[in-house]
Amino acid sequence: MAKKKVYVSSTFKDLEEHRSAVKATLERAGFDVECMEKYPAFDERPKDKCLADVAECDYYVLVLAWRYGFQPQDDNPRRLSITHLEYEEAVRLKKPCLPFLLHPDAPWKRGFQDPDSHSPDSAVCRFRDHVEKRHGRSFYTTPDSLARAIHEALRAQEQKHLTHGEKAKA
Q1: H helices present in 38-142, as ranges
Q2: Considering the chain, what is the average pLDDT of its residues?
Q3: What range does the domain containing 35 cover?
């Protein structure tokens, strides 16, 4: 049986430790994890590569804290971040979207937050709010709690697919 591919989408610098914990946990659990840390040098726009990788994944995992992220200039009239563009692509392609949001009360370094991050009008708050209204989400507080929560959500997705597959065969 082929490994299921999981695309991990988030901003990078602020969540580097979290992404590392997630990647290690999921690889130990037998998933193929696609993330920008694995990218070699490549000859295409980062946005295009990311969106193509989202299209190839079995599961899309979104991790949000308090940064909205890089907003590419080219071919991006709504000025969305790459993370937001990845999310929209996963929704458009009907990929299972599993969102994880930093708990609002969790301590977080100021240098890892947008200056207006807690304002309801900030890009990151609007994005978080949109995701919460559209999907069932989980909160996390630490790299380990995030890795555990993602692993549990993926196991539940796998179980759901197995159960639906068995019903379809009956």
Answers
A1: 46-56, 82-92, 123-134
A2: 89
A3: 5-169
